[in-house]
Amino acid sequence: MNRLLTISLITVLLCTACGKDDYTYTPVPFPEPDAGPPPITDEELLDLTQETTFRYFWDFAEVNSGAARERYHPADPSNDENTVTAGGTGFGLMAILVGIERGFISRDEGVERLRKILGFLESADRFHGAWPHWMDGRNGNVIPFSQQDDGGDLVETAFLAQGLICVKEYLKNGTETEKQLATKADELWKGIEWDWYTQGETSLYWHWSPTHQFAMDFPLRGYNEVLVTYVLAAASPEHGISREVYENGWARAGNIRSVREQYGLPLLVSHNGAESYGGPLFWAHYSYLGLDPNGLSDAFVNYEQVNINHSKINYQYAVENPKGFRDYGKDCWGLTASYSRNADGSIGYNAHHPANDVGVISPTAAISSIPYTPQESTRALRYFYKNKDKLLGPAGFYDAFSPEYNFWVAERYLAIDQGPIIIMIENYRTGFLWELFMGNEEIRSGLTSLGFTYGS
Predict the structure, then answer these.
(1) CATH of 3-28+43-449, one of 1.50.10.140, 1.20.140.10, 3.40.50.1820, 3.90.700.10
(2) Cβ neighbours of residue 19 under 8 Å, at least 6 residues apart?
(3) What is the pLDDT of residues 115-136, one digit of tens each?
C-alpha cells in the first residue's frame, strides 16, 4: 500500500477514535534519497583529481627547499614538516611540469619552484652521487631512514633522476633561465655513480653508507619497482653499467620469467614474495612514470603486458572478493603499499596485495593504473568521487580507506602515492611525461645497450 495513503488512513482512524469528524491532513514529504555529488564528466573528474593532487607538491611542499615532504597530515600540518624524500621529490618535479601544462600554475611560477628545488638538491648530502631517502629540507642533511640507512639510496635516487631528466627535456629549448636549469638538471643526474653501487659485482645494490658501507646488502633483483634504476644506470655516460649487470641483477639470469597464471591471465614475471596474484600495484607505477611501458620489451618479457595483467589480476581479485570485504568489486578495488588500518584500529603502514589483504583500499592503486585498465580505473575513480565527502581532502584523495570498518579513512598523504596519480593520469591522457623521458638521448642509448625494444 502507498505509504502516504497508509498514513492518511491511520489519521482517519485516530480522529474517529477520538470523536472528531473534521480534520485537516497535510502530507509531510519524505526526504529525497542522497543523490550524491553533482554530475561530472570523466574529463572533469580527471581534471579535478589532477588539480587537487597537484596541491600536495605545490601548496604542501617543504617551505625552505620546495621539495616534497615524505608525508602530510592535515590534522597536524607541523608533523614531519622538514623531512623531504628524494623519490617523492622526483615525482614532484614531474607533477610541477604537469601543473604548468594544465594551467594550474603559470610557467614562470613553475620555473621558479624548479629553480628552488634544483638548488636544494645541488647542495644536499650525496653519497657517490646518490641522494639519501630522507633529507632535512632546511639544510639538505641526511636524515637516517633506519639505523644503517644513513647514506645513499639508489632506488629513491633513480626516482628523483627520472624527474630530473623530464625537467631537462622540458626546459632545454626555453629561455636562457630555463636552459640553465635544464643544464643543472642534466648535471645532477649524470653525477650519480651507478657503477659504484655494483660493488664490482653483476648487480646493483640499494644502499651505501659512509659509516656502514654496503652492510645492508640489498641487491636489486626483479620483479619489483626498480627497473628504471637499471635503465638509468645503463644510460649514464660516465658511470654506466654493462648488460651483464642488468641480466644477472634485474633479470636474475632469466629467472625473472614466470609461467604462473591467475584468472586466466599470465603473470609473465616472478613477483618477489607475491607469486600467486602479483605484488602491490606500485610495482606497475614507479618505474613507469617516465619509462614508457608501451611496447617495452627486453630479452625476457614485454613490460606493457606485465603491467596490464598485473593490474587486471588485482582488479579481478576485488571482484572475486574471497574474504568478503564490504564494497569490494567492480567499483571499489586497488591494493598497494600505503597507510593501513592495524588490528586495533590504529593507523599503520602495509604493502597491500591480494596475498596480503586486510580490507584496505588505496586510491592510488586503481587511479595510477589507468593507462593499463582505463575502464576499471575510471569506475573506481567514480566510486572515490561518490564518497568524496569522506575521501577527498586538501591534496587529493586520502591515502587509504576501508568500507569494511565503518568506512575507516586514513586522512593522510604520502608523496610516493600522490605522485603517480597526477603523473599516470597525464600519461594516460597525453603521454606527456613518457614523451619527455623517452625523448632523452641517453635513455634511448641505455635501453638499446640493454637489448630493449620500445615504442607502440
Answers:
(1) 1.50.10.140
(2) none
(3) 999 999 999 999 999 999 999 9
